[in-house]
Structures are given as structure tokens and as C-alpha cells.
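Chain X:
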Amino acid sequence: MLKITRFILLAVILISFTTACNSYQKMLNNPDISAKYKAAEAYYNTGEYRRANRLFEQILPSYRGKPQAQRVVFFFANSYLQIKDYYLAAYQFESFVKSYPKSNRMQEASFLAAKCYYKLSPNYSLDQANTNDALDKLQIFIDNYPDSEFLAEANTYVQELQTKLEKKDFEISKQYHTIRDYKSAINAFDNFISTYPGTPFKEDALYFKFLSSYEIATNSVIMKKLERLKGLQDIYDTLTRYYPETLFLEDLDDKMSRVVKEIALLEKNNIAITK
């Protein structure tokens, strides 16, 4: 009995799916623009955005210059956003903004266009041209609509994108340390900290600057070693002042303990030589 019930249920689902597909295919070929408009909105309202998108695309030319055009263009753009075709969504939202500057959906369309650029931003390790474009678009929106209901979301996106750019620059700086080009690493970390004083990667940048400086100092010739070892104290003091509970504290303390001992030994030898 259970098997029969399951078979009947599966058959009903299959018939319903086939009927729905046939109905959609017929609508695509239906010359009645009004019927397509109603069907497109029905699909849109039930979350069937791919089907809605194709129908909106078909009827859009017929509604240019008509009262319904704004609604069709906006839904067409948003259907692209919902199916994650962000390039075309951004293009259509920007087209909406240019075509209907007095629309009551102007602000929302401007925000969603910027949001599409945000969605196109890739992983930090890749080229960040789209990230910079997204930041530009979001900043324009924020400047144009400082009291917008979408302001908080826009600011969140800006912060996320900015952090991504900082992450990329930090990893580039860190790469110099990884390949043991310590002088370049120190310069890169100095520039990074100067460019992004409030970055969440500042603690890590200071730590890796310390490590690069430590490698140079401990492997220096005698004539330069004392001065470079003493310079490590400044980096250590800066890092521990800003981040007294840093996760790197144990390693920092261990290395500074060795540095202090070596400084004492070098100064003792210098005194002995002087005498």
C-alpha cells in the first residue's frame, strides 16, 4: 500500500511539473503581450525569476514609453539580480536610473546597481578592479542619499570591500617576508601601516615587520648589529603598546629576551675593546 501511495505521489508531481513546463513554453510563444506581462509578474511574485526574466525580456520592447515600462524594467533588472547574473543586473539597474530619474524607485535602483558591483568583487587574491568599481559606486550612492534606508547596508559593503583591499596589500607585504627579502618587507609594512592606520591587519603587520627586522639584525655584521638590535625595541614597544594582549606576545618576548642578552654582550665587548 505504501509503495502504491509513493508511486501515485511521484506521478502527480511529474504530471504537475510537465504541465507547468508546457504552460511556460506556450507562454513564451504566446503573441499576446498582455498575457505575457501577467505571467511574468506571476512568476516573479512566486520567486521563479528565471522564467520571469525571459518573459520580461520578450515584452520589454513593447512597453517602452508606456506607463508600465518603469515596472517592467525594474522587475527585469531585479530578476537578473535574483538569479545572480550581476553584470546584466547592474547594467539594467543603471539603465533604469538613467531612464527614470524621477521614479520613486530611483534610490532603490541606484543602491541595487551598486550592490551588484559589490557582488562582483572577487577574492582578495585576484585582481581588484571590480572591488574598486564597487567602492566608487557605493560611495556615489552614499553621497547622493545620506539619509537612505539602505545607508547602513551600503556602509557595511564599503567596510567589507575596504578590508578586502587591505588584506590584499597586507598579503603582498607579507610575501616579501616569506621569500626572505626582509628589507623590502620592512618598507612594504611601513607603507602599509602609513596608508591604512586603522586597518584590522595592523597588529599582524607590526609583528611581521618585527620578524623581518629581527632577521636582519641578528644576521648583521658586527659594525651594524648593535644599532639594529636596539631598533627592535622600538617595534616591540609599539606593538605591545597598541596590542598588550597580542597573540604574538610569547614569541615577541622570547625573541626580545635573546636580543637584550645579545645587546648586553655586544656592549660589554665594546667597552672591553675601548679599554
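Chain Y:
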Amino acid sequence: MNHLNLEEFERKIAYTFSDKNLLILALTHSSYANETKKGSHENNERLEFLGDAVLDMVVSEYMYRHFPKMPEGELTKLRAAVVCEGSLAELSRKLGVGRCLLLGKGEESTGGRSRDSILADAFEAIIGAICMDGGMEAVTKYIMGFMEERIESTKSNFRNLDCKTHLQEVIQKTSKVPLKYAIVDEHGPDHNKVFVAEVTHDGAVLGKGSGKTKVKNKLLPAIIPVILVSVLTIMGIATTGIAGILMIVMIPILILISWIMWKAGIVKVVPND
């Protein structure tokens, strides 16, 4: 080890290896293996590969069991936020992983010990090493020792961004009566209406809110292709022969292009400030 002996590092991570070589391998960067003429497999990349998969599985299982009302899309976003490179690098810094890494001179001189990508990979490699050394029960305990609080705090931040979901979760804990949402009023000219929405539960009004919406002028470029084909059809230009075949082929393609433009934000409905 560079600056920390194995026993001290094991105390920091709260895990004692039966096979110390697995821990050394988890902390061996490929640059060090290359400089010391070790084999191509004698670095932490394979353990990082394993640790990445194990981390995803353990975190996914925890979220599946503890957040039964959260849809798949939100689960995916939450997991991505929890196990992202920056998050894992932060955990590595708290454990002092950077001080223990075996790095090549080139990586050492360019700040490799503090680089997020190297620290995150090493964190996952340590997970892989614990999995190989102690099995799934040991590695799950290790991961959740760090991740449980992080998952919950990250989820709280997600809640703050999605008040509707948060409200539904709170209500569902104490009642089976669903929330109801309704537009109860609207005023203003057609091009700039203000809508008033109301949420009720079991006949009681929980809150009201108002807002405006408008369709941006960017709608026109997206529907031009469809309009063009329609005009050609009406004029009889694209109804016979090869032109007719091309029209039949092009209509779904142009509709797809319009849909892609909408997904890309060229067409969208946005709040009016």
C-alpha cells in the first residue's frame, strides 16, 4: 500500500478480507500494472466490472422493496443519481481510497488520486472484491452501510421536485380513497387563458393552483412535412405511379420525423411565465 496499511484501510471500510490479495487488486490501477509489467488482468478493471453490476443489483432490490409505489422510470432515475460517478467518488474520498491506490507515475503526476473516474472505479472494484471474498450477504451489508442514507436523501430531493407524487404517497399511507384533480375555473382571452386547478380527497379540498399554458410557434416546422404531402395529394400530384408509391412510403416517415422533432423540443407545451 502507498500511504495506508491494509489493516487500517479494512477498519475504515468496516470489512476484513480473508484474501488480502483481492483488496490489493481492487486498489491496483491499470497504469500501475502496466508500469510494473504485470499481466493485463492484474488490475482492478475486472473487479470494477463485477462491482458495478453488484451495486446496481443491490440498490435496485432495495428501492424495489422500499418504494413499491414508485414507477419504473422514477426508479431508474433515482438509481442513476445514487450510483453516478460523482456520488461514488465522494464516498471514496470519505474512505480515503485515493491515498491507497496503486497508480502509475503518469497518473500520479496528473492528479489521478483525486480524479472522480478513478475513485469511482476503485469504489466499485472494492465492492467486487468483497463480493468475491465474502459473498452476496457480506457485500450487500457493506453497500447498504453507505447507500441506505444516500438513497433516502436523494429520494427526498426527488420528492421536492415532484410534489404531486409526494402528496399521493402521503395520502396512500393512510387512506385508500384516491385523490381527485379538476379544473374548476378558467379566465382570460383564448390565446392567454389562466386555468385554476383543485385537488380534493374524500370531498375535502386540499389545495388550489393556477397557471397558463401556450403552444410555441415552433409547432409549424414540425407539421410542414405532413401539410406538404396533404397538399400534393389534394392537387393530384402524388396519387399515381411512382409518385403515389413514394407518397405512401413518405407519409409514415414524415410523421415519424414530426414526432422526433416534438420529442427533441421543437414542439412542446410550456408554462407561460
